[in-house]
Amino acid sequence: MPRIQPIILAGGSGSRLWPLSRELYPKQLLNLTEDCSLLQSTLKRLENLPDSLPPVVVVGEAHRFLTLNQIKELGLGGHIDIILEPLGRNTAPAICAAALYCRDRADDDLVLLVLPADHLIRRPQSFQEAVDKAVDLASQGRLVTFGITPNAPETGYGYIEKGEGNSVLSFVEKPDLQKAKEYLASGNFFWNSGMFAFAAGTFLAEMEKMSPEIHTSMVDAVDHGTRDKDFFRLDRESMKRCPDDSIDYAMMEKSALVSVIPADLGWSDIGSWQAFWEVAEKDGNGNVLHGDVIAEDLVNSFVRSENRLVAAVGLRDMLVVETADAVLVAPINRSQEIKKIVTRLKSEGREEHILHRTVYRPWGSYTILEEQAAFKIKRITVNPGVKLSLQMHHHRSEHWVVVRGTAKVTCGEKVFLVLENQSTYIPCGERHRLENPGVIPLELIEVQNGSYLGEDDIVRFDDDFGREGTKI
Questions:
Q1: 274 and 330 in contact (C-beta within 8 Å)?
Q2: What pLDDT digit, counting tens, does each position of 235-272 carry?
Q3: Rounded CA gap, 266 and 272, in Å?
Q4: What is the largest CA-CA distance in the chain?
Q5: pTM (2 decimals)?
Q6: What is the domain count for the chain?
Q7: Counting Cβ atoms within 10 Å, is residue 456 exposed (0-12), middle (13-18) or buried (19+)?
Q8: Does 454 reside within a domain?
Protein backbone atom coordinates (compact mmCIF):
# COMPACT_ATOMS: atom_id res chain seq x y z
CA MET A 1 0.00 0.00 0.00
CA PRO A 2 1.61 3.32 -1.02
CA ARG A 3 1.86 6.14 1.44
CA ILE A 4 -0.84 8.81 1.26
CA GLN A 5 0.04 12.51 1.30
CA PRO A 6 -3.13 14.54 2.04
CA ILE A 7 -3.24 18.01 0.51
CA ILE A 8 -5.89 20.33 1.95
CA LEU A 9 -6.98 23.25 -0.24
CA ALA A 10 -8.02 26.02 2.16
CA GLY A 11 -7.95 29.10 -0.03
CA GLY A 12 -11.68 29.71 -0.72
CA SER A 13 -13.68 32.79 0.24
CA GLY A 14 -17.20 31.29 0.46
CA SER A 15 -19.05 34.43 -0.64
CA ARG A 16 -22.32 32.50 -1.08
CA LEU A 17 -22.54 32.09 2.73
CA TRP A 18 -22.44 35.84 3.34
CA PRO A 19 -22.99 37.49 5.82
CA LEU A 20 -21.54 34.74 8.04
CA SER A 21 -18.62 34.07 5.70
CA ARG A 22 -16.41 37.07 4.92
CA GLU A 23 -13.31 37.57 2.82
CA LEU A 24 -11.06 37.57 5.90
CA TYR A 25 -13.07 34.88 7.73
CA PRO A 26 -14.21 32.43 5.05
CA LYS A 27 -16.42 29.35 5.11
CA GLN A 28 -13.74 26.77 5.91
CA LEU A 29 -12.98 28.52 9.23
CA LEU A 30 -16.60 28.58 10.41
CA ASN A 31 -18.30 26.17 12.81
CA LEU A 32 -21.39 25.35 10.78
CA THR A 33 -22.45 21.78 11.54
CA GLU A 34 -20.23 20.54 14.38
CA ASP A 35 -18.28 21.78 17.38
CA CYS A 36 -15.33 22.46 15.08
CA SER A 37 -14.76 24.29 11.81
CA LEU A 38 -15.02 22.67 8.39
CA LEU A 39 -11.22 22.84 8.10
CA GLN A 40 -10.79 21.09 11.45
CA SER A 41 -13.38 18.49 10.49
CA THR A 42 -11.44 17.78 7.28
CA LEU A 43 -8.21 17.32 9.24
CA LYS A 44 -9.87 15.03 11.78
CA ARG A 45 -11.31 12.92 8.94
CA LEU A 46 -7.77 11.94 8.00
CA GLU A 47 -6.79 10.59 11.42
CA ASN A 48 -7.85 7.01 10.69
CA LEU A 49 -6.44 6.71 7.18
CA PRO A 50 -3.72 4.02 7.10
CA ASP A 51 -0.24 4.93 5.80
CA SER A 52 -1.14 8.61 5.83
CA LEU A 53 1.51 11.31 6.24
CA PRO A 54 0.77 14.62 8.02
CA PRO A 55 -1.32 16.84 5.74
CA VAL A 56 -0.03 19.79 3.75
CA VAL A 57 -2.41 22.76 3.87
CA VAL A 58 -2.44 25.35 1.07
CA VAL A 59 -3.85 28.70 2.17
CA GLY A 60 -3.84 32.37 1.19
CA GLU A 61 -1.70 34.92 3.01
CA ALA A 62 -4.69 36.67 4.58
CA HIS A 63 -5.88 33.50 6.37
CA ARG A 64 -2.51 32.14 7.49
CA PHE A 65 -2.74 32.89 11.21
CA LEU A 66 -6.38 31.87 11.57
CA THR A 67 -5.55 28.59 9.82
CA LEU A 68 -2.52 28.02 12.03
CA ASN A 69 -4.55 28.71 15.18
CA GLN A 70 -7.21 26.19 14.16
CA ILE A 71 -4.54 23.58 13.48
CA LYS A 72 -3.01 24.24 16.91
CA GLU A 73 -6.43 23.83 18.55
CA LEU A 74 -6.37 20.22 17.32
CA GLY A 75 -2.92 19.71 18.86
CA LEU A 76 -1.33 19.45 15.42
CA GLY A 77 0.87 22.54 15.51
CA GLY A 78 4.34 21.76 14.19
CA HIS A 79 3.15 18.55 12.49
CA ILE A 80 1.40 20.08 9.48
CA ASP A 81 3.10 22.06 6.74
CA ILE A 82 1.31 25.22 5.62
CA ILE A 83 2.01 26.55 2.13
CA LEU A 84 1.17 30.22 1.61
CA GLU A 85 -0.11 31.54 -1.71
CA PRO A 86 0.83 35.23 -2.09
CA LEU A 87 -1.72 35.36 -4.93
CA GLY A 88 -4.75 33.19 -5.64
CA ARG A 89 -4.35 31.29 -8.91
CA ASN A 90 -7.08 28.62 -8.63
CA THR A 91 -6.77 24.91 -7.86
CA ALA A 92 -4.35 23.72 -10.57
CA PRO A 93 -1.41 25.88 -9.40
CA ALA A 94 -2.23 25.19 -5.73
CA ILE A 95 -2.16 21.40 -6.20
CA CYS A 96 0.91 21.60 -8.43
CA ALA A 97 2.79 23.64 -5.81
CA ALA A 98 1.89 21.18 -3.06
CA ALA A 99 2.97 18.22 -5.22
CA LEU A 100 6.32 19.88 -5.97
CA TYR A 101 6.78 20.79 -2.31
CA CYS A 102 6.29 17.12 -1.37
CA ARG A 103 8.47 15.71 -4.16
CA ASP A 104 11.55 15.28 -1.96
CA ARG A 105 9.67 13.44 0.80
CA ALA A 106 9.34 10.15 -1.02
CA ASP A 107 9.60 8.62 -4.45
CA ASP A 108 6.99 9.01 -7.18
CA ASP A 109 4.79 6.29 -5.65
CA LEU A 110 3.56 8.74 -3.03
CA VAL A 111 -0.20 9.18 -3.59
CA LEU A 112 -1.54 12.71 -3.22
CA LEU A 113 -5.04 12.85 -1.73
CA VAL A 114 -6.44 16.30 -2.57
CA LEU A 115 -9.35 17.52 -0.44
CA PRO A 116 -11.08 20.92 -0.23
CA ALA A 117 -11.14 22.25 3.33
CA ASP A 118 -14.79 23.33 3.27
CA HIS A 119 -16.74 20.17 2.44
CA LEU A 120 -19.06 18.19 4.69
CA ILE A 121 -18.85 14.38 4.71
CA ARG A 122 -21.31 12.61 7.00
CA ARG A 123 -20.26 9.00 6.26
CA PRO A 124 -16.60 8.73 7.32
CA GLN A 125 -16.49 4.95 6.84
CA SER A 126 -17.67 5.31 3.25
CA PHE A 127 -15.07 8.02 2.78
CA GLN A 128 -12.28 5.69 3.92
CA GLU A 129 -13.52 2.91 1.64
CA ALA A 130 -13.60 5.30 -1.33
CA VAL A 131 -10.08 6.52 -0.52
CA ASP A 132 -8.80 2.92 -0.45
CA LYS A 133 -10.21 2.32 -3.96
CA ALA A 134 -8.86 5.63 -5.24
CA VAL A 135 -5.36 4.99 -3.85
CA ASP A 136 -5.31 1.55 -5.48
CA LEU A 137 -6.16 3.07 -8.88
CA ALA A 138 -3.75 5.96 -8.38
CA SER A 139 -0.90 3.54 -7.67
CA GLN A 140 -1.63 2.01 -11.10
CA GLY A 141 -0.97 5.35 -12.78
CA ARG A 142 -4.52 6.69 -12.91
CA LEU A 143 -5.67 10.23 -12.12
CA VAL A 144 -8.65 9.58 -9.87
CA THR A 145 -11.58 11.88 -9.16
CA PHE A 146 -14.34 11.17 -6.64
CA GLY A 147 -17.83 11.22 -8.15
CA ILE A 148 -20.64 11.78 -5.69
CA THR A 149 -23.76 9.66 -6.21
CA PRO A 150 -26.51 12.26 -6.90
CA ASN A 151 -29.77 12.18 -4.96
CA ALA A 152 -31.45 15.10 -6.74
CA PRO A 153 -31.30 16.91 -10.10
CA GLU A 154 -28.80 19.46 -8.79
CA THR A 155 -28.00 22.37 -11.12
CA GLY A 156 -25.27 23.87 -8.93
CA TYR A 157 -22.64 21.15 -9.52
CA GLY A 158 -20.64 19.98 -12.49
CA TYR A 159 -21.09 16.31 -13.46
CA ILE A 160 -18.82 13.41 -14.43
CA GLU A 161 -20.06 10.90 -16.98
CA LYS A 162 -18.83 7.39 -16.13
CA GLY A 163 -18.07 4.75 -18.76
CA GLU A 164 -16.97 1.11 -18.51
CA GLY A 165 -15.28 0.17 -15.24
CA ASN A 166 -13.96 3.36 -13.71
CA SER A 167 -13.32 5.19 -16.96
CA VAL A 168 -14.51 8.77 -17.49
CA LEU A 169 -16.39 9.61 -20.69
CA SER A 170 -16.75 13.34 -20.07
CA PHE A 171 -16.82 16.23 -17.63
CA VAL A 172 -20.02 18.27 -17.91
CA GLU A 173 -20.61 21.88 -16.84
CA LYS A 174 -23.45 22.80 -14.48
CA PRO A 175 -26.64 21.78 -16.34
CA ASP A 176 -30.11 23.29 -16.50
CA LEU A 177 -32.87 21.53 -14.56
CA GLN A 178 -34.11 19.37 -17.45
CA LYS A 179 -30.61 18.14 -18.24
CA ALA A 180 -29.92 17.49 -14.54
CA LYS A 181 -33.05 15.32 -14.39
CA GLU A 182 -31.80 13.33 -17.39
CA TYR A 183 -28.41 12.86 -15.72
CA LEU A 184 -30.06 11.62 -12.53
CA ALA A 185 -32.25 9.16 -14.41
CA SER A 186 -29.36 7.74 -16.45
CA GLY A 187 -27.48 6.42 -13.41
CA ASN A 188 -24.01 7.01 -14.88
CA PHE A 189 -23.57 10.71 -14.06
CA PHE A 190 -22.00 11.79 -10.76
CA TRP A 191 -21.43 15.14 -9.08
CA ASN A 192 -17.91 16.47 -9.47
CA SER A 193 -16.70 16.67 -5.87
CA GLY A 194 -13.37 18.41 -6.41
CA MET A 195 -11.58 15.60 -4.52
CA PHE A 196 -8.74 13.72 -6.23
CA ALA A 197 -6.06 11.06 -5.78
CA PHE A 198 -2.99 10.55 -7.95
CA ALA A 199 0.60 9.39 -7.68
CA ALA A 200 2.88 12.40 -7.39
CA GLY A 201 5.02 11.38 -10.36
CA THR A 202 2.03 10.73 -12.61
CA PHE A 203 0.40 14.01 -11.68
CA LEU A 204 3.51 16.15 -12.23
CA ALA A 205 4.26 14.46 -15.56
CA GLU A 206 0.70 15.09 -16.80
CA MET A 207 0.76 18.70 -15.55
CA GLU A 208 4.01 19.33 -17.39
CA LYS A 209 2.49 17.86 -20.57
CA MET A 210 -1.02 19.34 -20.34
CA SER A 211 -0.31 22.73 -18.72
CA PRO A 212 3.42 23.48 -19.09
CA GLU A 213 3.06 27.17 -18.15
CA ILE A 214 1.52 26.30 -14.80
CA HIS A 215 4.08 23.58 -14.15
CA THR A 216 7.04 25.84 -14.97
CA SER A 217 5.69 28.74 -12.91
CA MET A 218 5.07 26.56 -9.87
CA VAL A 219 8.50 24.89 -10.12
CA ASP A 220 9.94 28.40 -9.85
CA ALA A 221 7.48 29.38 -7.09
CA VAL A 222 8.58 26.42 -4.95
CA ASP A 223 12.29 26.59 -5.80
CA HIS A 224 12.38 30.31 -4.91
CA GLY A 225 9.96 30.02 -2.00
CA THR A 226 11.01 31.00 1.51
CA ARG A 227 10.47 29.61 4.98
CA ASP A 228 8.68 32.04 7.32
CA LYS A 229 8.49 30.47 10.80
CA ASP A 230 5.42 28.21 10.63
CA PHE A 231 4.87 28.75 6.91
CA PHE A 232 6.41 28.09 3.50
CA ARG A 233 5.73 31.08 1.26
CA LEU A 234 5.63 30.55 -2.50
CA ASP A 235 7.55 33.08 -4.58
CA ARG A 236 5.27 36.00 -5.48
CA GLU A 237 6.89 36.90 -8.82
CA SER A 238 6.67 33.32 -10.04
CA MET A 239 3.00 33.18 -9.09
CA LYS A 240 2.32 36.42 -10.95
CA ARG A 241 3.45 34.66 -14.13
CA CYS A 242 1.28 31.60 -13.47
CA PRO A 243 -2.03 31.18 -15.37
CA ASP A 244 -5.22 31.10 -13.31
CA ASP A 245 -6.90 27.75 -13.97
CA SER A 246 -8.79 24.98 -12.23
CA ILE A 247 -7.41 21.45 -12.06
CA ASP A 248 -10.35 20.23 -14.18
CA TYR A 249 -9.61 22.56 -17.08
CA ALA A 250 -5.84 22.43 -16.75
CA MET A 251 -5.48 18.64 -16.66
CA MET A 252 -8.37 16.34 -15.76
CA GLU A 253 -10.49 17.13 -18.84
CA LYS A 254 -7.46 16.74 -21.14
CA SER A 255 -5.79 13.59 -19.82
CA ALA A 256 -6.42 10.04 -21.03
CA LEU A 257 -5.52 8.68 -17.57
CA VAL A 258 -8.60 9.84 -15.67
CA SER A 259 -10.74 7.44 -13.61
CA VAL A 260 -13.73 8.05 -11.34
CA ILE A 261 -14.66 6.39 -8.05
CA PRO A 262 -18.44 6.64 -7.44
CA ALA A 263 -19.06 7.35 -3.77
CA ASP A 264 -22.07 7.93 -1.53
CA LEU A 265 -20.43 9.87 1.31
CA GLY A 266 -23.23 12.03 2.67
CA TRP A 267 -21.32 14.80 0.89
CA SER A 268 -22.06 18.48 0.50
CA ASP A 269 -19.84 21.39 -0.45
CA ILE A 270 -22.22 23.65 1.55
CA GLY A 271 -22.00 25.99 -1.40
CA SER A 272 -25.10 28.00 -0.46
CA TRP A 273 -27.48 28.55 2.43
CA GLN A 274 -29.98 26.26 0.70
CA ALA A 275 -27.35 23.50 0.53
CA PHE A 276 -26.67 24.04 4.23
CA TRP A 277 -30.41 23.86 5.02
CA GLU A 278 -30.71 20.62 3.04
CA VAL A 279 -28.04 18.79 5.09
CA ALA A 280 -28.75 20.34 8.51
CA GLU A 281 -30.93 18.72 11.19
CA LYS A 282 -34.46 20.13 11.03
CA ASP A 283 -37.36 20.41 13.44
CA GLY A 284 -40.81 18.90 12.80
CA ASN A 285 -41.75 21.77 10.49
CA GLY A 286 -38.65 21.50 8.33
CA ASN A 287 -36.92 24.48 9.95
CA VAL A 288 -33.25 24.96 10.81
CA LEU A 289 -32.96 27.37 13.74
CA HIS A 290 -29.67 28.50 15.29
CA GLY A 291 -29.04 30.94 18.12
CA ASP A 292 -31.58 33.09 19.95
CA VAL A 293 -34.58 32.53 17.66
CA ILE A 294 -38.30 32.63 18.46
CA ALA A 295 -40.43 31.21 15.66
CA GLU A 296 -44.20 31.13 15.20
CA ASP A 297 -45.88 29.42 12.24
CA LEU A 298 -42.58 28.83 10.45
CA VAL A 299 -42.19 26.16 7.74
CA ASN A 300 -39.16 24.95 5.74
CA SER A 301 -37.10 27.97 6.70
CA PHE A 302 -33.57 28.73 7.89
CA VAL A 303 -33.11 31.32 10.65
CA ARG A 304 -29.69 31.93 12.21
CA SER A 305 -28.95 34.48 14.94
CA GLU A 306 -25.38 35.32 15.91
CA ASN A 307 -25.81 38.28 18.29
CA ARG A 308 -29.39 39.08 19.26
CA LEU A 309 -32.95 37.82 19.41
CA VAL A 310 -34.49 37.13 16.01
CA ALA A 311 -38.28 36.67 15.94
CA ALA A 312 -39.96 35.22 12.85
CA VAL A 313 -43.70 34.82 12.19
CA GLY A 314 -45.52 33.19 9.28
CA LEU A 315 -42.53 32.50 7.03
CA ARG A 316 -42.45 29.80 4.36
CA ASP A 317 -39.26 28.68 2.58
CA MET A 318 -37.34 31.72 3.82
CA LEU A 319 -33.77 32.47 4.83
CA VAL A 320 -32.82 34.89 7.63
CA VAL A 321 -29.20 35.27 8.82
CA GLU A 322 -28.27 37.88 11.43
CA THR A 323 -24.74 39.03 12.30
CA ALA A 324 -23.50 42.04 14.25
CA ASP A 325 -23.37 44.29 11.19
CA ALA A 326 -25.69 42.74 8.61
CA VAL A 327 -29.00 40.90 8.22
CA LEU A 328 -29.82 38.78 5.18
CA VAL A 329 -33.42 38.00 4.20
CA ALA A 330 -34.26 36.01 1.05
CA PRO A 331 -36.31 33.12 -0.30
CA ILE A 332 -34.16 30.10 0.45
CA ASN A 333 -34.30 28.89 -3.15
CA ARG A 334 -32.60 32.12 -4.27
CA SER A 335 -29.63 31.81 -1.91
CA GLN A 336 -27.23 31.34 -4.85
CA GLU A 337 -27.93 34.97 -5.76
CA ILE A 338 -26.30 36.26 -2.57
CA LYS A 339 -23.10 36.64 -4.61
CA LYS A 340 -24.79 39.61 -6.27
CA ILE A 341 -25.01 41.35 -2.88
CA VAL A 342 -21.33 40.68 -2.23
CA THR A 343 -20.47 42.10 -5.65
CA ARG A 344 -22.43 45.27 -4.87
CA LEU A 345 -20.72 45.66 -1.51
CA LYS A 346 -17.36 45.47 -3.26
CA SER A 347 -18.30 47.92 -5.99
CA GLU A 348 -19.61 50.42 -3.42
CA GLY A 349 -16.39 50.22 -1.39
CA ARG A 350 -18.07 48.83 1.73
CA GLU A 351 -16.24 46.58 4.18
CA GLU A 352 -19.10 44.22 5.12
CA HIS A 353 -17.89 41.65 2.58
CA ILE A 354 -14.37 41.68 4.07
CA LEU A 355 -14.65 41.91 7.84
CA HIS A 356 -16.96 41.09 10.71
CA ARG A 357 -17.31 43.51 13.60
CA THR A 358 -14.95 41.12 15.42
CA VAL A 359 -11.66 40.65 13.56
CA TYR A 360 -9.15 37.96 14.53
CA ARG A 361 -5.42 38.64 14.52
CA PRO A 362 -2.48 36.37 15.45
CA TRP A 363 -2.20 38.17 18.79
CA GLY A 364 -5.94 38.04 19.68
CA SER A 365 -8.90 40.00 18.32
CA TYR A 366 -10.67 43.34 18.20
CA THR A 367 -14.35 44.24 18.00
CA ILE A 368 -15.60 47.52 16.54
CA LEU A 369 -18.11 48.93 19.01
CA GLU A 370 -18.86 52.20 17.19
CA GLU A 371 -17.52 54.06 14.18
CA GLN A 372 -18.18 57.62 13.06
CA ALA A 373 -16.47 60.09 10.72
CA ALA A 374 -13.78 61.23 13.16
CA PHE A 375 -13.64 58.48 15.80
CA LYS A 376 -13.76 54.72 16.21
CA ILE A 377 -14.19 52.68 19.40
CA LYS A 378 -12.78 49.14 19.68
CA ARG A 379 -12.63 46.42 22.30
CA ILE A 380 -9.21 44.77 22.02
CA THR A 381 -8.26 41.38 23.47
CA VAL A 382 -4.58 40.36 23.60
CA ASN A 383 -3.64 36.77 24.39
CA PRO A 384 -1.33 36.09 27.38
CA GLY A 385 2.37 36.49 26.69
CA VAL A 386 1.80 38.06 23.26
CA LYS A 387 2.65 41.49 21.87
CA LEU A 388 1.47 43.47 18.87
CA SER A 389 3.89 44.91 16.32
CA LEU A 390 5.96 48.02 16.97
CA GLN A 391 3.98 50.43 14.79
CA MET A 392 2.98 53.96 13.93
CA HIS A 393 -0.08 55.68 12.43
CA HIS A 394 0.00 58.76 10.20
CA HIS A 395 -3.58 59.93 10.65
CA ARG A 396 -4.86 58.92 14.08
CA SER A 397 -4.16 59.09 17.79
CA GLU A 398 -5.32 56.42 20.25
CA HIS A 399 -6.56 56.37 23.84
CA TRP A 400 -6.27 53.01 25.64
CA VAL A 401 -8.28 52.14 28.77
CA VAL A 402 -7.41 48.78 30.38
CA VAL A 403 -10.51 46.99 31.68
CA ARG A 404 -8.96 43.58 32.46
CA GLY A 405 -5.39 42.42 32.96
CA THR A 406 -2.18 44.40 32.71
CA ALA A 407 -0.75 46.11 29.61
CA LYS A 408 2.91 46.70 28.91
CA VAL A 409 3.08 49.78 26.70
CA THR A 410 5.88 51.16 24.56
CA CYS A 411 5.30 54.78 23.54
CA GLY A 412 8.27 56.50 21.94
CA GLU A 413 11.25 55.90 24.24
CA LYS A 414 9.10 55.07 27.28
CA VAL A 415 8.12 51.56 28.41
CA PHE A 416 5.59 51.28 31.26
CA LEU A 417 2.73 49.22 32.73
CA VAL A 418 -0.94 50.21 32.57
CA LEU A 419 -3.14 48.44 35.14
CA GLU A 420 -6.89 47.84 35.26
CA ASN A 421 -8.91 51.08 35.32
CA GLN A 422 -5.88 53.04 34.11
CA SER A 423 -5.40 54.63 30.70
CA THR A 424 -2.75 56.03 28.37
CA TYR A 425 -2.56 58.16 25.23
CA ILE A 426 -0.71 57.37 21.99
CA PRO A 427 -0.11 60.53 19.90
CA CYS A 428 -0.41 60.47 16.11
CA GLY A 429 2.94 59.65 14.48
CA GLU A 430 4.44 58.09 17.65
CA ARG A 431 6.01 54.63 17.53
CA HIS A 432 4.17 52.38 19.98
CA ARG A 433 3.60 48.78 21.02
CA LEU A 434 1.08 46.90 23.17
CA GLU A 435 2.00 43.73 25.06
CA ASN A 436 0.25 41.38 27.49
CA PRO A 437 2.87 40.28 30.06
CA GLY A 438 0.30 38.46 32.19
CA VAL A 439 -1.28 35.01 32.27
CA ILE A 440 -4.89 36.11 31.59
CA PRO A 441 -6.24 37.81 28.46
CA LEU A 442 -5.69 41.56 28.35
CA GLU A 443 -8.80 43.54 27.46
CA LEU A 444 -8.87 47.24 26.74
CA ILE A 445 -11.05 49.86 25.11
CA GLU A 446 -9.38 51.82 22.33
CA VAL A 447 -10.71 55.17 21.14
CA GLN A 448 -9.23 56.32 17.84
CA ASN A 449 -9.41 59.97 16.74
CA GLY A 450 -8.27 61.32 13.41
CA SER A 451 -9.02 62.32 9.84
CA TYR A 452 -8.61 58.75 8.52
CA LEU A 453 -9.34 55.61 10.54
CA GLY A 454 -8.77 52.84 7.97
CA GLU A 455 -6.99 49.66 9.07
CA ASP A 456 -4.33 50.25 6.42
CA ASP A 457 -3.01 53.33 8.24
CA ILE A 458 -0.24 51.35 9.87
CA VAL A 459 3.54 51.20 9.50
CA ARG A 460 5.17 48.16 11.15
CA PHE A 461 8.79 48.36 12.28
CA ASP A 462 9.06 45.04 14.14
CA ASP A 463 6.66 42.12 14.48
CA ASP A 464 6.82 38.68 16.10
CA PHE A 465 4.55 37.30 13.36
CA GLY A 466 6.63 38.38 10.37
CA ARG A 467 4.17 41.05 9.18
CA GLU A 468 6.64 43.91 8.70
CA GLY A 469 5.68 45.84 5.60
CA THR A 470 2.14 44.39 5.46
CA LYS A 471 -1.28 45.78 6.37
CA ILE A 472 -2.76 42.49 7.64
A1: no
A2: 999 999 999 999 999 999 999 999 999 999 999 989 89
A3: 16
A4: 75
A5: 0.89
A6: 3
A7: exposed
A8: yes
